[in-house]
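Researcher: Can you fold this with iron/sulfur cluster in place?
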Amino acid sequence: MSAAPGPKANGSAYTARFRVWRGDADGGELRDFDVEVHEGEVVLDIIHRLQATQANDLAVRWNCKAGKCGSCSAEINGRPRLMCMTRMSVFAPDETVTVTPMRAFPVVRDLVTDVSFNYTKAREIPSFVPPPGLRAGEYRMRQEDVGRSQEFRKCIECFLCQNTCHVVRDHEENKQAFAGPRFLMRIAELDMHPLDSAEESGLDRKSAAQEEHGLGYCNITKCCTEVCPENIKITDNALIPLKERAVDRKYDPLVWLGNKIRRR
Amino acid sequence: MTQVERHTYDVVVVGAGGAGLRAAIEAREQGLRTAVICKSLFGKAHTVMAEGGIAASMGNANPRDNWQVHFRDTMRGGKFLNNWRMAELHAREAPDRVWELETWGALFDRTKDGRISQRNFGGHEYARLAHVGDRTGLELIRTLQQRIVALQQEDHERSGDYEDRLRVFQECTVTRVLKDGARVSGVFGYVRESGRFFVIEAPAVVLATGGIGKSFKVTSNSWEYTGDGHALALLAGAPLINMEFVQFHPTGMVWPPSVKGILVTESVRGDGGVLRNSDGKRFMFDYIPDVFKEKYAQSEQEADGWYADPDNHRRPPELLPRDEVARAINSEVKAGRCSPHGGVFLDVSTRLPAEEIRRRLPSMHHQFKELADVDITAEPMEVGPTCHYVMGGVEVDPDSAAATGVPGLFAAGEVAGGMHGSNRLGGNSLSDLLVFGRRAGLHAAEYAAELGTDDRPRVSAEQVDTAAAEVLRPFSVEGGEPESRTENPYALHQELQQTMNDLVGIIRRASEMTEALRRLADLRQRSRRAAVEGHRQFNPGWHLAIDLRNMLLVSECVARAALERTESRGGHTRDDYPEMDRRWRKTNLVCELASGDGELAAVDPADGQIRLTRRDMPPIRGDLLALFGKDELLKYLTDEELDT
Amino acid sequence: MATTETAGPSSGGVHAPGRAAIAARQLRTDRWWLAPAVTVTVLTVFVVYSTWRAFANADYYAAPYVSPFYSPCIATNCVNMKGGADLQIFGPWWGLSPALLVLIFPLGFRLTCYYYRKAYYRGFWAAPPACAVAEPHRKYTGETRFPLILQNVHRYFFYFALPFAVILTYDAALGFRDAAGHWGHMGLGTLVLLVNIVLIWVYTLSCHSCRHIVGGRLKNFSKHPVRYRMWTWVGRMNAHHMAFAWASLVMVALADLYVYLVASGAFADPKFF
Ligand code: SF4
Ligand code: SF4
Ligand code: FES
Ligand code: FES
């Protein structure tokens, strides 16, 4: 780190003040760096420059640098974002840019967090149930029928929504019971899949969403939607429809009555 | 003996992209205990970057399509250097591989009657690419990932343990394939997160690590593409073929620096985009080679007529094959007629109404808006060639995907060579992953199942120690003496990329490649002094220092093979030998480790680490040859080949 | 929220063991507090105003206009509305404001509305105040328990909202009369009621429950082309549900205020024709 004075403009390049969290599970701190920024760069470039010049062992995850793999999730000035899709031009040259790891997950080192929570949750969602008696190559689905689920399949699994959702971000103890927006959306995706045969096989995704995956914890405050880099309307198109589907099953008096009678 | 975490599996798959996951699924479905190792997180593999689609002759868009037509297109694209048996299997099996994805939950775009929609692409005679908008690769990875989860759920139901028979080791890097005599006995690697070592004992190892793009400065590939599988195979004693063939995509972004190399899809040109130099000249008309003269328009007026009325106009020269366009752009830039950031202009803004551009090219519009602050409906893009794909790779048996000469080693996907010959068609890589991923998984499982329990190869402690010492080296490099100052791995990597880009890039000359080999030798020496600070826990500097070994090995393969092949064909263009030569058609250049068994250190810097030999390919089977006209075959095959 | 106790947590949430040790509970540098502050202000003003007006039991009818707070008017103590929706279902024993009898329905509709829930959970309960801004509660159970589990009844309020919208449409139509009851006239009040009812309709029809009922619940759209078409329309409106929610909230209060001003004689309704 240089003791150089604050930012100075120099053609298209300038020196920016970065505060990057460094440390691991045992502790850490925000460290200041002065680092060169060139025109057209994104935050991930600056982190890479720090790595190559001032902090060889600065840990960071990334793959595609094009917002397609969802690896480089972090929090920049307190907002959960992809580092590769955050252009430096959105900051004033004299602004301090603070970069921290995602704060809902255990930290591994520096900007890298342990996101295994998400993989655990992924496993708890029952998979697609293929329609019995339909062989590969015989599937027929209309575009209008696959459209809804296709939107959810745009997900790049950056886990920013999981990180931002206050249900687990602010309440560690809810992690057990709550699948998180990304995986509730996965349930919605399968429930809206035109050929999914879960129901025929005795699995009711709608009530399972509420009873086993914690749909009720979601108070539809839409932070997942706000941070999703793929602009998926998670709350409006997946979570609220899923809540409505659960109501169909659980709070619709006619359905409830029907079930009571049938069970006898 | 070194402290390592030990596991035992039947099949280990290195790499978790399309090919790796498909192989793992197959091995597990055969009932074998399978491990998948990925360098990144599960589901982040480079396959997600594929946009266009999966080529498979399902005939949904055009009922005349069938595997023979697909085979023919593939051979033409690869300039007949393809391993014809692989091309045949690929064309035959691709439709089944796509359909099977649907039974695992994939949702492709649909035709009106509810079948999988197929789109047109360069080099494919009929609309053939199954796709999901422009994110087909993501769909493929997600589907395979979710299939793996489904299998794990089955196991959980059966035994209470998700990872009973199929386990994914995330963020782990394999640095050595271990052997017991001639046979594979397992892999050695480290956990990126903790820096701890692990050994997985397994009689069968499937390499599915993808490509080598990170050896080049301008590339559309991610950091993972450091040629790991190529190097692992070499070090295990398996040969590589066709390493001189590297595909450069003509249009990658050149600015801003952060995204240099990222792909600009071919559809931009297909939808009317034109290339101009700094003088505003539409230069492609000057670069139409003689063989294509009758097929391409000679004037702007004629070219512009093609989009609306292709029957009565010839194609615009912007739509020449990828290698031709890439070379043309390269020449313009070298002649100084380049855009401000060293590319040329690709313009659709003056060609289509803004509304139309947004509708047809949504992701390109978004990509330029977000990353470059360029509104492609109002201003031209700046583009230049970018390293995209390596056709060369591990030499494999076409049916079983088994690597030559190393029992128990298999390879599939980009890391395997032969399938695409000298040039790959768009859409053929995703289908390649599925077809040969499955075959590799199947045959690896069969191979492992046939071994009795006492017949299993064993991992020797000595090999583990050597492997561990190799990996730990960057921590113990001492500076001090003036002639042996330590090196920064990042700086070495940058020099390597610059060397490959400048000297073994899109246009090649003997003198430059000789120079490249010299520099590579120098870098190899210096890389032994690459030192890192910090500790083993998630230390990217250390990881890079280790990956350098692999990049240097494959770079040398590329340079040596490219120097040897004195013709131009597909992804290999020689300034000093600009013509395709029929006599070279059936020859594969084979790269092997010069020192024999896995030893690198003892090699004399002047000779390098790679020994190059020539190997003739088996003649193409008669019924497959009969799919082509005699006139066409004459362009590729020598007279003697045609007579027999 | 109702099911959370407020306390100053120091070891939970973003400070839970294992997470990156960052002292600040949030690091946002933008004006994240603006949106919740505006929500709280506007909703508070509305609640205060509407409570006053609901209990006032006066100045809610200025022929031919009726305040939306008092329609339908279903007690005998309602003023005579000259053909309006004064139904006298409740006898003379009801002495309080007739507005209290019906307001529960629109109130319940809005209270359980998915958008308003977001707004007041964020604004009033700070759960969360803004994205990635830590909330001040020690425990959180969301809508899994009583009473918030009752939010699931939203669709029944939606059903009730439909007849209300019809009645208010009728009221707006009556606005085309003059004070004596002759048709073919129009004043500024007519326009106010018209705008109000249009906003109420778009707000009601863009409801998430509505979207679900008209088509969202289907698995195969292709088998129900008409409902698919309707779902698409509702979906398009639904994308602006937030805007409609605010606009109609403000407008309903303005409509009432207008009637109040005219009825109390503070303002004379300008007649167009
Ligand atoms: S809308 Fe629900 S799932 Fe999304 S962030 Fe808010 S509480 Fe979490
Ligand atoms: S839904 Fe959006 S925010 Fe959540 S993981 Fe997927 S892409 Fe990321
Ligand atoms: S690096 Fe892939 S999303 Fe940022
Ligand atoms: S009224 Fe807002 S969601 Fe129903």
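Model: Folded with iron/sulfur cluster in place. Residues 34-263 of chain C form one domain.
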